[in-house]
Each structure stands twice: as structure tokens, then as C-alpha cells.
């Protein structure tokens, strides 16, 4: 029998977040004369193991086991009250499980981390109204201790990245909802996060603005190798964004289904959503939600 050599990836893939993107979901064999080479994915970045949460004698989450790999976009769907946001808060270190473990790079998520950023749905409450756009981004740079002389260039870079280059001196009240959400994302990226947690960030936006922000999000996280945990009620949004969609069932919250998306990237708002596989997945998710709600 040929010997087996295990490797993480080809040698021409540099280490770092992009390596995780390129080797995710990888378990492939390469046959060479006399040697079978097996490439295996790296250890998960975030790991839930038999996680439970009891509050006031009521079980909110029960037996959740889930792996999230570096560079992966994972969307979470399910009926209201099934624990989607609770899982997000566990990753953030805001909520501690009463059973099981949640780990980040092998370490318990005991407290908030500077390399984990959160984008909320309610941008109106998330942004500081007395600070300009530049001032809101500066808040994150202050928190991570970036020297003051380096901040203006970094702020300008981030605002330009989100299409807000000409709005640095505007206050949130003078900006549209889409602009405010772009600003919240810019502030989150200022932390240079490894993981971006997003709790229905586009739910309050109109359809066209939501589509533009979906595409911008995919472009940014792909370029930077950021891992995304994205909570949404929009099934089409989940399919469009994700590498995997996790379906939760309620009472108590638990992982009921996982959907591997497998749609080609980069994705397109017209071609992707008209693809037969997209339509098949949409139907499967719709049937899952309908059954979970019954």
C-alpha cells in the first residue's frame, strides 16, 4: 500500500487567512508514483461542542455542535426564537454556555476579543450620533490603540473602501440608512477582525441597497480572508452569501440541518439567483423553515 503524506495545502499557497479560504472544505487525494498525498483542511477556527444554555429553568439552546473554518461565510436561519443571535453572542463572548464549550482557535470564548467585530441591524443605535463618520471609525482605532498620527490615513482608507470617501465630515443623522450601515461596517473593519459577526445587518434596508451591500461584503471578506457568521431571516440572502447555511429549529434551539451551498464565486445578483441550484436550495430552505415553524 502506498504511504500517505498529510499536508495542509500546496506549498505555493502562503500562510494566513487566504490559505484557509483556499483549502476550506478540502479533503482531496493526489496520486503520484508510489505516494498518495492527502490534503486536509486546517482545524476549525470556531467550534461549538454540545453547547447548551439554560436561563431561569428554561432550556434556550440544546446540544449544538458546529465547526466554522477560517475564511468561511456561514449564514444562520431559523424561526424567531430559535437562538440565532444567542449563538452569535456566544462567539462574541457576551454569553457563556451553561453546558458544553465554545472555542476560538482552541481557546474558550470567555470575553469579547478585539479581533472579533460585530455589525448590528440597528445602525441608528450602533453609531454615535455626536461623532462624524470619521469620528465613528476613529472610535474603533482608539479602542485598538492605533497611534493618533496614523489614524487619518486609516480612516480615509476605510471610508473609501465602503464608498463613503466624500462623507467623512457628515454626522449619521445626515446620512441615509445604507450609508449608516456602510459606516458601521467600516468601523467594524477598523478593528482588523479575524471574524465578522453580523446580526441581520441588512434587514432594515431597501432591496437595491441590500443587494449592493451584499456584494460589497462578499468582495471585502474575500479579499481579506475574514470569517463571517451572518444571522438572517432572508433565505435568498443566506444562499447568496454563504458557503454553508445552518438551519436552527426552536424549543429549544438546536442545529437541525446544514446546507452546503456550492455556488460558484464571484456571485452575481442576476445570474446566481436564476441558477437552478440556487432555486433548488431556496425551495429546500423554505420547506425547512415551514417544517420548523409547525
From TrEMBL:
Keywords per UniProt: ATP-binding, Nucleotide-binding, Transport
PROSITE patterns: ABC_TRANSPORTER_1, ABC_TRANSPORTER_2
SMART domains: AAA
Domain ABC transporter positions: 46-275
Top-rank taxon, per record: Bacteria
SUPFAM superfamilies: P-loop containing nucleoside triphosphate hydrolases
Keyword flag Lyase: no
Gene name linked to the record: cmpD
Entry keyword tRNA-binding: no
InterPro entries per record: AAA+_ATPase, ABC_transporter-like_ATP-bd, ABC_transporter-like_CS, ABC_transporter_ATP-bind, P-loop_NTPase
Protein name: Bacitracin ABC transporter ATP-binding protein
PANTHER family: ALIPHATIC SULFONATES IMPORT ATP-BINDING PROTEIN SSUB (PTHR42788:SF13), TAURINE IMPORT ATP-BINDING PROTEIN-RELATED (PTHR42788)
Protein family per UniProt: Belongs to the ABC transporter superfamily.
Gene Ontology terms, MF aspect: ATP binding; ATP hydrolysis activity
